[in-house]
What does this fold into?
Amino acid sequence: MVDGLWSVPSLVLQEHRAVIETISWGILAVGLLINLISFVQLPAALRELRRYSMVEDSDATWDMLISDATLPVSVLVPAYNEEATIVDNVRSMLFLQYPDLEVIVVNDGSSDRTLAQLVEAFSLEQTLRAHELHLHHAPIRGLYASRAYPGLLVVDKQNGGSKADAINAAINLSRNPLFCVVDADSLLEVESLLKAARPFMEDPKGMTAVGGTVRVLNGCTVQNGQIVEIGLPRSFLPLIQSLEYIRAFLVNRLAWSHWQMLSIISGAFGLFRRDLALEIGGFNKASHGEDYDFIVRLHRHMQATKRPYAMRYVPEPVCWTEAPEDLRTLATQRKRWQRGALQVLVSNADMIGNPRYGRFGLLGLTHSLLVDLIAPVAEIAGFLLLPLFFAAGAIEGEFLLAFFGLFVVFGVFYSVMALVIEELELKRTPHVSGLLLLGLVAVVENFGYRQLNSLWRIRGLWEFLIGTHDWGEMRRKGAKRVRDG
Amino acid sequence: MDVEQDLLRAIWQVTLLLALAAGVVFLVLVVWRAISSLRAQKRLRRRQELDKILQSVLHSPVPLGATALPALRRGDFPIVLDLALEMIRMVRGSYVDEIVSLVSDLGLYPYLQTVLRRSKGRSRRKALIMLGYFPPSQSRALLLAHVDDADPYVQLTALRGLARHPDASVNAEALRALGATLHTNSLMLADVLHQFGERALPELHALAAPVPRPQWRTNATFHALRRERHRRKTYEHVRVAAITAIGNIGALSSSAALLPLLHDENAHVRAAAVTALGRIGDPAIAWDLSALLRDKEVEVRIQSAQALGLLQDESTLPALVDALGDTAWWARFHAACALAKFEDRGIAILRAISREKDVKGDIAGQVLAEMAVL
It folds into this structure.
């Protein structure tokens, strides 16, 4: 068949028909496999939700709030050049509902007025705190505490070049059995810590890490560090990210949590056991995905020491974070995530498909390899090569269209199911109109955004191969912040 | 060719099916959301109305009889239950009795019985919380029936309700039932057991005591052995919770019951016993506690240092000074903090040790620096 659009290339392609068919079927097989896994995730996510739902469960939260037995928590807030929002956000953390809470803010060598803003707002004074230098980090320049806010400790340290370095310093200084890592630009709902700590109360010996839901703050109205009105983002990019976050947390993580193969707990909001963090050497300073790296090393450690353990994702505690509003920032973020994921896979290559590391090594990490390495390559190859093969007449247009249609429709179906779970548990979509808008986004994102995302991931792969270490600038302006008076 | 065509047809069929499913599910979701928003608004309005009614009856200058109250609709009972529980959280004493009497007059008791019979999880828990405030004649049997519930939250709620009963025999029955439990949440259980108070100490002492190992039977099934193992494991949690509760109650008479537990084979039991004895504050057992500064489990050593800090018995100073050289940083830190609690004498010791260039000197220096007394 040499009746394609370009007769010369098509002749060449005809000669290599077997190779072309293998590539084409390989690309489609990867797509089908990923969709199949996603499909299996849906019932698992629903079952997990049914088992651990916290809807209208204020009584258990109340019992924890008034109990002496509730495990104390240190909230660790690494901050680098966050002068615009740091005061509001720290204030919101100090007012979280929790019976025994300390907040440790680490000013990681900011070049702006982050520390000055904190000193001014909370009347901070220099202090000292006995602590063990268990984890290595850049030198501490000073510690600050407030008489008015006894639960607040501010650490001023030299920049360690990574968020992990700041977290490690805070872990050394924390004195509670649990610690919660929260991004300085993120806001927690008031009951979120109580809800996140609940799995630790239920299984204090076995529970090692708990992750909550992260949602997009853009479009919400924030007053004095509290969300006073939930809204959907008004611009297109954060809106798409809203749906992405709903899908990633409420289906993907819920399902992996159900299967006890959770491979990541978001760096924006996670609760961990301090003793185990020390045992594994804290967060990895060299990693671009320190949250992912930490969880994989935790799995490795628990499996290697043959201790029974659990990690859980709970949808109810919600952390709101600002999503990038422009393409450049979003691309930087996605490339960094991709580099981080590949770093983790390479440094833990011995665990992939290895039954010695339990089902997490055998299946969880193998799935990560498929999603983080093979899928973006296959997807980009699919978008570039398949139309080329079709144009040259090497593959049937009908097949191409059918598979593309299947993948798009499945993507929409998956997003709709994520919205169903969101409505069953969280109900944070403000209006029916918001739901309709997200439904529309579920369709539109397949034409352009999805391809762009794959492209960024390929660029992340390239940057990983050439050894780029740049964290990149994160410009944020998403939430509407209003102040009293 | 036929295979290819069949495959193509199958792909389109699946695509169509998924598209249809996505469309229908989304439509149902949108309609359901719209309806539930309307329902929520309606419920909110009714809730405000009922709240006003309850508040006006409770604040009425003249007592209103049951006949003066409005008849409730079926859907009103969950709202009244929620409102009553919210009000009870905010108040104490006789006001709680007034709320209970009012909701009883409104006919809530039969509704609670129905919920306990038919519902699961959270609804049952709410019903049990409310029942805990009802007179023992109405609530005792229902609460006792839930002490061994498979849902630990339901179990704890039932126990919390029983803890409010003044009748010691009810307490004894509840705590005996707890001994046979297969499910519990040890951390929260300690809190609940504390609420039983001093009158339940004999039962709490019994719960804290080591359980004799069962006789090995040749005819025991694998399932029975597994069940027994699980029960024993859970029972260790119950013991820890009981010991913690005894410590929180803080009666000196409990010292004798706790003392043998300092040598228990379970490290969690030892640690809980040390903490409890520290809280009770019996100076006679200071020497026994100081021996545990050399326990093989770091958690026990830490608790021991903390307890000695509370007791402040000078005979334990040498042991605390030795503990400054412990291999675990947290044990060293708590030993230094315990010394600091002895005030002038302890601080003088810390000052002297802080000049040494070893781990003892380091921790003494750090703690003194934190106290800003260097």
Observations:
- Chain B has a mean pLDDT of 88.
- The radius of gyration of chain B is 29 Å.
- Chain B touches chain A through 47 residues (CB under 8 Å).
